[in-house]
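Reply to dn_fold:

You asked what the input looked like. This is it:
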Amino acid sequence: MRKILVLTICSFILLSCSTAQSAGKKKANNQTTQVKPQVSKKTNSKIKDYDKVITKEAISDSGLFDVHSVGDKYYFEIPIVHLNTDMLLVSRFAKLPSNLGGGYVNAGTKTNTRMINWERFKDKILIKEKSSSAVATDTLPINVSVKSNNYEPTLYAFDIAAFSKDSSAVVIDVTSFYESDVKAISGLSSRLRSTYKVKNLDKSRSFINSVKSFPENIEVIQDFTYNASSPPVNTGDETISVQMNQSMILLPKTLMQPRLYDERVGWFTLSKYDYSSEELKSDRKTYLRRWKLIPKDIGAYNRGELVEPIKPIIYYLDPATPMKFRSYMKEGIELWQKAFEAAGFKNAIIAKEPPTKEEDPDFSPEDIRYSVVRYVASTTRNATGPSVSDPRSGEIIESDIIWYHNHLRSYRNRYLLETGAANPSARTLNTPDEEIGEMMKMVIAHEVGHTLGLPHNMSASYAYDVESYRDGDFTQKYGIAATIMDYARYNYIAQPGDENIRFIRQLGPYDAYAINFGYRYIDGVKSADDEKEILNSWITEKAGDPIYKFGGRGSYDPTAQTEDIGNNSIKASTYGLKNLKIVAKNLPSWTSDQTDNYEDLEELYGELLSVWSRYVGHVVTHIGGVVEETKNPSQEGAIFSPVSKLDQKLALSWLQENAFETPIWLIDKSILQNINYAGYTDRIRSLQAKHLNNILSFERLGRLIDHNALDSKTYSVLELLSDVRTGIWSETKLGANVSIYRRNLQRVYLDAMFNLMTEDLDPKRSQQYFNVNQSDVRALVRGELNRVKQMLNTALRTNVNTETTYHYKDAIERINTIIDPK
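and this is what came back:
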């Protein structure tokens, strides 16, 4: 019996050893041979054999998913390993009609970005939208509640058509999804549909143009035609046709370490609510959107040596880019290398020519692995710098800068108008190639800045004194703003006779500062919170220096305006108008006299009026203005401070003299009579009306009321209205006749006062709402109108001409109607 027991035990041991060895071999084999995951096939008459769905006629493309075209149907073959995997669904316009969205929408504009998962439910595959805005640590009990109270919608449900032969993938028919008007990926928002009275998608004129699969993304081009009663381009066919580009992008498996945003440094961001917080509320966290840069040699990096990143940012030029522009584009991209050196990286950003077919037969601008500067044959005058980022961490995955062919024409025109008085080389329609190239380089650099994560910083030009713009040495070294991300395109301050002036913008010290903040690798940190103290020290070290200030979030701040330069916009606009008067006088000799036609003269005269209006607008902002200095509570001083009373009164005095006194120099017969047969007086009226209405806006008056309530020494609404009245109706005190231009302006004033007496702010649309009817506004306006009426009655006793007499009597009747409409 003992022998039998021993033999049995020995046999069991041997069997166990054999089993263990066998298992060991399988494990070793698994390390070298990847076994594809399989799915259980459920009996369902709708699910067919693979060969009956993906037939011999199929045209296939392999990549992230294998995609198949069979007749007029398109199929995705989704590997099981990619089910429940985070992806991005990005919708963009590829082509669109002119003026869609009022001209603010272009080819390449993103319309939707959604994080999705492909999920299996029984015999269906679902596209589920995934939310990354509400999160909690997986191990915490509250994570269950976060998921339950943020249930993601199903964008579409597909029947499983077949399984791959080895059962490692499911096949679905995606034709209906991409040929239907699915709102989640449509280019036409509800607002656009309402504006253009879109009725429906015309399926007979809508189709899938192409489907391409790449290793990390799938690109679908759709041609959609809608029936619409009021299309943006009305040719009588009541049709809107758009081409949409749908990108499906595989997100990284390993998340980048996020970096916390600080509003004192400008950055594009993403936000989420963290329910893991120990605070008594969900903790809103905002992170930078940035590329993932890690040094190749962290030891050398920590010693202060410049180190290349493991994966640099690489931009390819579009094969369609004209050869003569390629060097400028490459230089514009690589200008940022110097800024990245401030963050400890060398060769962090690289520009490359497009590879030839021999070098890379699979190269495509649509492939998510390639960031491309696209050159678009379009009459649009613009350039944009969009990017695609991981909503979980903020990691920028890819970017396509879009350059529109006609954009340089805008720069040529503004170069002539804004610098021509002091810059002889700008006084031509044929701007020298070297200077056009310099402009293009800086525009590309600006757009690259956006793709690196930097928004506009409209405070940067305020860092430099106005008089410095007339100093050749200063402008050559520092340019015209502390960052390329300001809207400061040209030096319009420099005067005739100033020497060695730089007129075109360039990168500045703020750019290096911001790149260091966003991209310096901090070794050893395990969370975004661990970096907070270090980041704050970088900011406080530069606090108070205007070169490193970020601003421009509100239209109320005269120190952070678009298209202005210098630390005193009143003084800068004075210099700008001096130059513009010289340009206006010479405009025909620089244009039509050279071309023997008036086309360019007409275009440039229209833009000259816009430049005048822009300089005027910079001064208007002082009235009711607020200077914003973003600070933490540990820093001294207020964040919001009203512009001084003296500066506001100086601004209004400047406006009375330069904007509301008729700018006769703009009314040049030698120009006007050669470009249009009529409309001269109304064009001036319209320009002046824009700025007078802006001064007399509810929001501006509301700010003055608030400021004066806190400090009675500030500029009050009563003082503003009195000063405006005195200037606009100055002829009544002088006993002078009123010109047609001034009569028009005075009627603009009465209409503005009527608006203040009768209209109200919409709380849903106003960012600065207050109850107008229960404020001082109506009472002060009524009082001012009565004062104007007294002035008019007195003026009627003077010896004025008939037009002026009739105008004054009409104005009195209008005032009576405003005060007492009954």
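Residues 1-34 have pLDDT under 50 and may be disordered.
Hope that clears it up.
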